[in-house]
Amino acid sequence: MRSKVPKYVQIAEILKRRIANGNYMSQSFPGGPKLVAEFGVNYRTVRQAFQLLLDEGLLVRGENERLVQPGGAGRTPFKVAFVSSGYCCPADKWLLAVREAARKYRCMFCRVVFDTTDDAILYETLDGDFDLIFLSVGTPDGLLLDKIRQKKEKVVLLFADMSAEGIPFFDGIGNEACALIVRHLARRNCRKIDFFSVMQTPEFYTARRDVWEKTLKELNCTGEAYCVMGNVEEERFVQAHRLAAGFLKQGAFREADGVFCSDVEAAQGLLRAFADAGIRVPEEIQVASFGAPELAAMFIPSITVIRTPPLAPLAAELFEHFLGITPQPGRLRFNFDYRKFTEDELIMQGESTWKNEGGVP
To answer: Residue 81, SS3?
Structure first.
């Protein structure tokens, strides 16, 4: 079926998305002849598309009437890249927060996607003409870590705190907030609270397990940890389901009245394994997790989780620091202190735990 939208409008929309994704950050904006050949249209159609972009201020006429992206009078635009695996969807709240902050401060923005941490695109991006690079690669090591150390004046790591090495760090709520979830379960009459995790970066999940273990001791509760290294080539919730089912066949979780999962994918797989085994949640066992409230709310039962406060204010602080608007010398960590929030602000109550304290539905 032919589209009723004029071709010049379709071309303009494609170019807008390319500009928003930073496709032309490291190359000149394409001229008319190139776009005529690319889209199979005549030059008049391309000129109409250009006029739409000029009218919206997405392009300006530079030297020799050549179309260029506006960078502001007398200055080179600040170039920002967000680098993550393909697992990060376009609606990811971290990606959205960085992209919106880049727009707010009139920075050029580019999203870079990689498959593995061996990809050349990671090293090329670090060597590229970027002023600020948000990098989501787990906990880097080896040659990649060496490269990040060399470029640390323009790199911000997401979720991996290496601020002790002078590398800036951007995160939401730290792992210390796991204590809130463990206490949440304990207040609902859980005395044996197990821990379940399918790990891909051990340091990340070990930190959450350590908080779980410490909090159990403080509450005089008990629990067992079930942690397995995952396969990066398989969806983690699928792995979690298979591994949890295997643990259940061996008698795991049978004496527990609560389980804290390291993340929502682990909780999703565990809930499916419980359902397959005829174990009712929360009637027989309660389940809670960390992060991804948007995803946690979609399951049946919905999962009780720690959620991250709105990221826009924190992203703004970070941009203003690097842009020199309100620099904060010596600051390397940009994350929330969970102690400044109430439990109601941080815990999203799902159907996987009792809504009131005392364990009575």
So the answer is: strand
Residues 182 and 93 in one domain: no
Q: What is the distance between the alpha carbons of residues 159 and 326, in angstroms, rounded to a whole number?
A: 23
Q: Do 302 and 268 contact (CB within 8 A), yes or no? A: no
Cα separation of 194 and 212, whole Å?
Answer: 9
Distance in Å from the first CA to the final CA of the chain: 54
Range of the domain at 157: 79-172+310-340
Nearest partner of 265 among 222, 301, 295, judged by Cα: 295
Cβ partners under 8 Å of residue 190, min gap 6: 221, 256, 257, 258, 286
Distance (Å, whole) CA 202 – CA 136: 15
Q: What is the pLDDT along the chain (361 residues), one digit of tens a residue?
A: 566 888 999 999 988 888 776 677 656 788 888 889 888 999 999 999 889 988 888 888 877 777 877 754 444 678 899 999 876 665 688 999 999 999 899 888 888 998 888 899 999 999 988 999 999 988 888 999 999 999 999 999 998 889 999 999 999 888 899 999 999 999 999 999 999 998 766 676 788 999 999 999 999 999 999 988 866 667 788 889 999 999 999 999 989 999 999 999 999 999 999 999 999 999 999 999 998 888 899 999 999 999 888 999 999 999 999 999 999 999 999 999 888 888 888 999 999 999 876 554 4
Task: Report the relative pairing of strands 67-68 and 60-61 from DSSP bridges.
Answer: antiparallel
Report the CATH number at residue 134: 3.40.50.2300
Instruction: Give CA–CA dist 59/20, Å, rounded.
Output: 12
**Helical axes 32-39 vs 43-55, angle rounded to 10°:** 120
Handedness of CA 209, 215, 218, 220 (dihedral sign): negative
Task: Give the type of residue at 306.
Answer: I
Whether residue 52 is found in the same domain as residue 91: no
Asked if residues 266 and 213 have their Cβ atoms less than 8 Å apart, the reply is: no
- CATH number, domain of 45, equals 1.10.10.10
> CA Rg, the chain, in Å?
24
Residue 57, amino acid = G
pTM across the whole model:
0.73
DSSP H or E stretch at residue 266 = helix 264-276
